[in-house]
């Protein structure tokens, strides 16, 4: 028998054996790419970018300064908030201290003057009323005397109430309102100080700069991404699991990750899989079309710290009792 014929016969036997009932099928797999966890650092305020300290692809440590925004406007607002807090603090001190002795003395003098005017008005009324009864003066003059006496008595009561108010000091409710206003002003000043500190954009974790959407001199709107940071000790495989394989895949399912360009597979484990399909909703499909559903999953890799993001991968999902 010719060697070529013998080799073809051997391959046919192997293929037939793989198709026999009871033989183990190929492990299920899914396709995707390598990804890192991403952290987006937003613009804290609409300030112009004054300095860019990093470049895309650069590795940074936690706490490294990535960008610096202009601080003049925020510094002015911080100073104004601190001044308002100081004013509220002094207002509270004034409420707690009560009236000055000079104010109490002035109120006492005003009361004495009002009492003197009241005595004079009452004396005049006492002189005029008998004359009015004898019709020696006009009735209108008697009425004016009585009104003047009543007005003078009212002024005495108002002056005495003002003096009592100064002597008793501020009400507890006023002091409580002063304390609340001071806390609000201090909180506003603290918020402005935090905003001022955020104008120095720093790395919250060690990682690699993935993207710098804005450049030196740009003025990004609040909340716009200034820096996109890739973090984590190693990447994970982000794959889409076809609907026929969904029942075989769950969190904790072991897997082998084949990275394009690497011969050896990496060991991994499923750390997340979505419950909802990522593409066409189930209610829009019928029959065999349901196989087009895909579920997003993430597979954590072991010993893959040197791999870059974006590389295509193929993931084989193993049974929990499978070996290597």
Summarize the structure.
By secondary structure, this protein is α+β, with helices and mostly antiparallel strands. It has 2 domains: 157 residues, Efflux pump adaptor protein, beta barrel domain (Elongation Factor Tu (Ef-tu), domain 3, Beta Barrel); 110 residues.
CATH topology of the largest domain: Elongation Factor Tu (Ef-tu), domain 3
Query: Would you report the number of β strands?
Result: 11
Beta-strand percentage range: 15-25%
Distance between the termini: 38 Å
List segments where confidence is low: pLDDT < 50 over at least 5 consecutive residues: 1-25
CATH superfamily of the largest domain: Efflux pump adaptor protein, beta barrel domain
Which CATH C-level class of the largest domain is it?
Answer: Mainly Beta
* Strand-pairing-aware structural class: alpha+beta
Q: Order of strands across the biggest sheet?
A: 1-7-10-9-8-11
Total helices: the number is 5
**What is the 3D form?**
rod-shaped
């Amino acid at each position: 028998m010719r060697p070529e014929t013998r080799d073809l016969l051997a391959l046919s036997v192997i293929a037939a054996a793989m198709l026999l009932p009871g033989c183990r099928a190929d492990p299920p797999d899914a396709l995707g790419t390598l990804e890192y966890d991403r952290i987006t650092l937003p613009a804290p305020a609409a300030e112009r970018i004054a300095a860019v300290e990093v470049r895309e692809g650069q590795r940074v440590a936690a706490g490294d300064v990535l960008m610096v925004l202009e601080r003049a406007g925020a510094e002015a607002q911080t100073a104004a908030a601190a001044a308002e807090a100081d004013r509220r603090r002094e207002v509270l001190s004034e409420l707690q201290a009560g009236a000055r002795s000079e104010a109490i003395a002035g109120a006492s003098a005003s009361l004495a003057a009002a009492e003197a005017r009241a005595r004079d008005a009452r004396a005049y009324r006492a002189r005029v009323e008998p004359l009015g009864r004898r019709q020696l003066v006009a009735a209108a003059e008697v009425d004016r005397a009585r009104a003047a006496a009543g007005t003078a008595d009212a002024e005495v009561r108002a002056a005495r109430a003002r003096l009592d108010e100064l002597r008793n000091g501020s009400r507890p409710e006023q002091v409580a309102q002063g304390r609340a206003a001071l806390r609000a002003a201090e909180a506003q000043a603290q918020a402005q100080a935090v905003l001022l500190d955020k104008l120095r954009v720093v790395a919250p974790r060690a990682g690699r700069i993935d993207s710098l959407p804005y450049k030196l001199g740009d003025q990004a709107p609040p909340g716009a991404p200034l820096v996109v940071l890739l973090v984590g000790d190693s990447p994970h495989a982000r794959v889409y699991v076809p609907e026929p394989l969904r029942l075989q895949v769950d969190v904790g399912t072991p897997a082998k990750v084949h990275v394009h360009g690497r011969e050896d597979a990496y060991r991994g484990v499923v750390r997340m899989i979505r419950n909802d399909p990522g593409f066409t909703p189930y209610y829009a499909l019928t029959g065999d079309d349901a196989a087009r559903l895909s579920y997003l999953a993430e597979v954590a890799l072991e010993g893959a710290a040197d791999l870059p993001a974006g590389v295509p991968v193929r993931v084989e999902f193993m049974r929990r009792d499978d070996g290597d």
